[in-house]
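ok posting inputs for the hypoxanthine job
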Amino acid sequence: MTKSNNHSPIEPQLQESLRHIRRFTTLHPRIGLILGSGLGDFADTLENADRIAASAIPHYPPSTVEGHKGFLVFGRVQQVPVVAVQGRTHFYEGHGIAQVAYVVRLMDGLGVRKLIVTNAAGGVNPFFRPGDLMIIVDHINFLFQNPLRGPVVAPEPRFPDMHDNYHPAYVELIEKIGLQLGIPLKKGVLFVSTGPSYETAAEVRMVRRLGGDAVSMSTVPEVLVARARGMKVAGISCITNLATGISSGPLSHAEVTEIANRVKDKFHKLVRELILQMDALD
Ligand code: HPA
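and the output
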């Protein structure tokens, strides 16, 4: 495990990580992409890709969850240079919350100013079905942890604003692309708790009453750091299952990855087009 916690200065660690990355790629990504459970294959579609094993990057927290590969993939979608995280780091693996978001500080160091976050999520909104894609419009942080806690890391402000975390122009853009491609999309608020256990039925009723449309175990740490660094963020959840109590049967990770795999085609089309059109926006 890395030592990028609140007690050791993060900047020298970031510089060391960046030096390692620079030895393996000359690409300067403009867009960052974090791929959720079962959605990592998108990284394999990037053109002229340089794949860097996360485990070889100094200070990068190792991924331990099954089905997550653990690579930073640098490549292009047409002319647009991107970096994709294939196998994100999760809080439930036992890493510190700042370590979970380490990759976003790295991306910022690489020049990324636009970020797409994706995840697998359980549907809480009764209108959602497994296989739906949801545009994230806001989140509820039920991790009760914050990667920005501790000494201020320049250029992040002490008290970052949380308006428009999910950039409204990107929300509109994703809706437009959905119409252009004939991909129906939902919109909603992502509720994030630590996992790794799925929610109880009573917790899911609470989530609904508190305003959540989908539940997940990721994404919030990365978005908090991205926003503190002034990046613009787009978010897409893949509804892989109905949350506990809304679904009839038990939940399994196998079901989550199977449904994510089934929506692969439309997810790839949507994200590809989003990258192209996001790059053309300010
Ligand atoms: N709950 C939390 N996280 C998830 C779920 C869920 O039902 N499905 C996929 N990730």
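notes: The chain has one domain: 10-280. Confidence is low (pLDDT under 50) at residues 1-6.
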